[in-house]
């Protein structure tokens, strides 16, 4: 029997080029890994202790499919504080990471043939999850010449009669763009005018470099902005798999709780206890990590500028798009790995607007980051010299 079944949406789920490159890089023991978004700050001791204590005390059974009440309350406080939109524990569903929250939201608000608009360039997993839900993915451009901040008119122009949802991500992966309040207000207005859900992926809300984080929920007047977040990036807890969805729509919450029960029964109980400790405990580890990403951003961009390479200076998250002067970014990334043992994510995997660029993770250890970028610059400069020679010849 054919697998996937001929009518399964799984047939159409695209592959992420980040994974392909990572799998290749894992076969090279000397590889410097700049391809993945894995925070390096380590998990705070009080978080580990809270989870271990829960384990020792036998707090390891199922929770409600919508999550521990105390964690829902902590998330509600956080969303209220960060977005300015009053959010109660009843507006929150705890999920198995932000991606699980987004995937369920796609399933809940999109039917077969319905369209979701995501930015170009985009984190590939959005299209993977939306396609798995049977939906169709379209893009709106965010352009390097605008610092990868969308232009409202271009977003509006991408809407069709089948569009049901608009996804926004600030701070953004892969561009590091942090959208200004005025742009977010315009996007919420567009969503209102076209009666769309606005899905706000806020995984990187805590990681900005001297510019304010603004949530589109701040401009929500009628419950159409759905906030999705997690402890993965802020607290270096990617493998703990705890995230959330916060929405004023109780119909949506009802469906998400129901889907969660069907799919995962509940998020991991010890993971939830750890997430609660992370959200309610000391935050100094977060400040240290953000300062460190910022310092690495500055060192990385200084190095690239000194070598004459183009880049877009990120204002948040922990990624840097570097212009490698080669439209075949898959080929470039494979060559860089094979010849100089540096793994980067090819721009092609994120979309047309990342053409000629590769994504570098600023979460790599500083010496690894700077050595990797120096070798990347060597590769670009050598290719440039090769092209000049061929032209002269
Ligand atoms: C923009 C964005 N959203 C969601 C996720 C996934 O987050 P989580 O680990 O909470 O599922 C990532 C991880 O890289 C991301 O970059």
Mind sketching the topology for me?
Elements: H1 17-26, E1 32-33, H2 45-56, H3 69-83, E2 92-95, H4 98-109, E3 115-120, H5 124-132, E4 136-141, H6 152-157, E5 163-169, H7 181-193, E6 197-201, E7 225-230, E8 243-246, H8 250-264, H9 269-280, H10 284-306, E9 311-312, E10 319-323, H11 329-340, E11 342-343, E12 345-346, E13 357-361, H12 366-392
The structure holds pyridoxal-5'-phosphate (PLP).
Report on this structure:
The chain is an alpha/beta fold and 393 residues long. The protein folds into two domains: 9-42 and 284-383, Aspartate Aminotransferase, domain 1 (Alpha-Beta Complex), CATH 3.90.1150.10; 62-280, Aspartate Aminotransferase, domain 2. The protein is 42% helix and 14% strand. The protein has twelve helices and 13 strands. The chain has helices spanning 17-26, 45-56, 69-83, 98-109, 124-132, 152-157, 181-193, 250-264, 269-280, 284-306, 329-340, 366-392; strands at residues 32-33, 92-95, 115-120, 136-141, 163-169, 197-201, 225-230, 243-246, 311-312, 319-323, 342-343, 345-346, 357-361. The strands form three sheets. The protein has a seven-stranded mixed sheet with strand order 2-8-7-6-5-3-4, sandwiched between helices. Strands 9-10-13-12 form a four-stranded antiparallel sheet. Strand 9 (311-312) and strand 10 form a beta hairpin. Helix 3 crosses helix 9 (269-280), helix 4 crosses helix 8 (250-264) and helix 10 (284-306) runs parallel beside helix 12 (366-392). It is globular. The termini are far apart. The mean pLDDT is 96. Pyridoxal-5'-phosphate (PLP) is lined by residues 37, 97-99, 123, 169, 173, 201, 203, 230, 232, 238, 243.
